[in-house]
Amino acid sequence: MTGERISDRVPDFARRLLAWFDEHGRHDLPWQHPRTAYRVWVAEVMLQQTRVATVIPYFEAFMAAFPDVTSLADADQAAVLERWAGLGYYARARNLHAAARVIRDQYGGRFPREPEQLAALPGIGPSTANAIAAQAFDRPAAILDGNVKRVLARLYAVEGWPNATATARQLWQLAEAHTPDYRAADYTQAIMDLGATLCTRARPACDDCPFAGDCHARAEGRTAELPHGRPRTGREQRRRRETTMLLIRDGAGRVLLTRRPPTGIWGGLWSLPEAEPGAEEEAARALGLTVRPEPPWEPLEHAFSHFDLTINPVPARLQESAGLNSPAGGVMDGEEGIWYNVATMERPGVPAPVATLLARIETDNEVET
């Protein structure tokens, strides 16, 4: 990529992109009405590694529960995680909650306007900070999310994995060079929309793109190749993990849920007790329970970003209990576990595969009754 290749296109890029956006862009996303700093921030965090269609119902439910940054900051983390359950990447929710408390305590509940201040908040990187500054405050600030990386990498045939240091630096230079000093909010949305709706990862709609005649990847027949994927070594393979989950039911058909540790996978969510294979009864005794394991269910596969998890569900019937974990009153200590009635209680925040298993429990209970 030469300097001439950039300079030939920069002056016209924003004008053409905004003209396309005015006619074809997305103007009815829920965080655009109203487009406040708080709503933009929550949406930007939710959209990290998650598609718009998936985010919209979560965003609307989250706004109903926490309509402003102060209500979010004042909430318990457990309540925040429950509204996030099923969206994945739960560190995002924990960081969102932590950042809300910083804004409440250090900024008096008013959002900082400078990208540098925004980027200092938990869970907000440079691109997200710039997106908030641009969309909420109309500040000219370049963004470089996955969609923008793809657009620029194809337009200029940028070599290398976009997250590699040298390639990312090159893409940041391009992003900054193309960002206009006017209509910052619209431009930011426009370049994300271009990547999300036309310059997609698979089967891009090049014939509809306003930059089809300028795109080096298209001219060279490399749209499927660019941007490059993460380099893999010959020995590298996706990691796999395996766990056994206990579905312990009491005489009333309630299922035991325990709280996950505050950090790590599914941090802070409710889940099913886990055990080593063949040690299900020992794991139950550690909770103060005596159970009778039943035949295991078929394994359940769940994919994370960096590994695959195989869950081996083992149903078990409660025989007796003692101490803190006695279900006599219907609940355990609220910080550690609950006996969850799948038919009558609102489901707490649980990971997606646990929700799948609970749904099967509900079906089994209906059959038994």
Describe this structure in words.
The chain is of the alpha+beta class. It has 2 domains: 3-219, Hypothetical protein, domain 2 (Endonuclease III, domain 1); 239-368, Nucleoside Triphosphate Pyrophosphohydrolase (Alpha-Beta Complex), CATH 3.90.79. It is 43% helix and 13% strand. It contains 15 helices and 8 strands. It has helices spanning 3-7, 10-24, 37-46, 52-65, 69-74, 77-84, 91-106, 115-119, 126-137, 146-155, 165-178, 184-198, 216-219, 280-286, 352-368, and strands spanning 239-249, 255-259, 270-271, 274-275, 289-293, 300-303, 307-321, 337-340. The strands form 2 sheets. Strands 1, 4, 5, 6 and 7 form a 5-stranded mixed beta sheet that branches. A hairpin with a 3-residue loop joins strand 6 and strand 7. Helix 3 crosses helix 4 (52-65). The longest helix is centred in the last third of the chain and has 17 residues, at 352-368. Keywords: 4Fe-4S, DNA damage, DNA repair, Glycosidase, Hydrolase, Iron, Iron-sulfur, Metal-binding. One of its GO terms (molecular function) is oxidized purine DNA binding. Adenine glycosylase active on G-A mispairs. MutY also corrects error-prone DNA synthesis past GO lesions which are due to the oxidatively damaged form of guanine: 7,8-dihydro-8-oxoguanine (8-oxo-dGTP). This is Adenine DNA glycosylase. Its EC number is 3.2.2.31.
